[in-house]
Amino acid sequence: MPYFCCNQVQALEKTFKAIQLQRMQGIPIVNPALQVEAINFQVWEKYCVGILITPWFMNLLVLPDSTEQLHYSPKSDEKITYHFPSGEYEFLVCYEESLGIYHSCSLFSPMFDFTTQEIAKQTAQQVLMLLMQPVELMEKKGISRRDLLRGKARE
């Protein structure tokens, strides 16, 4: 993983571990069997893309590079569309002070369907693999974009 992506992922995990401790204690949507973990972040185009697992959600994230951070201020309801090999996906523009701007596409929330961290990780890895497959291949396998983002793809 390139240096800029590695730094962003470390900041991402640190930020969401702090959120878990400071904002999520006692909240009923938290699954105590899970922990904050960044899964398979990789460079795609000029972005760092991967999945963040938390005890309360699993989201596909796009982390813009630091130069984009300096020139951009999100509106609270702003959305952005990314064109991945498997199709177009809509992301919310989000902001955390310790992290900066990031783009988030919800996969699962709450996380009670996942009984272990390992099951959540396997689902995240499958989603990322399918995300990068061309749309034609997805259609051939009979996988819809909705099923892809819900981890319901079947081999």
Automatic annotation (TrEMBL):
InterPro entries: NiFe-hyd_HybE, NiFe-hyd_HybE_sf. Pfam families: NiFe-hyd_HybE. Belongs to the HupJ family. This is (NiFe) hydrogenase assembly chaperone, HybE family.
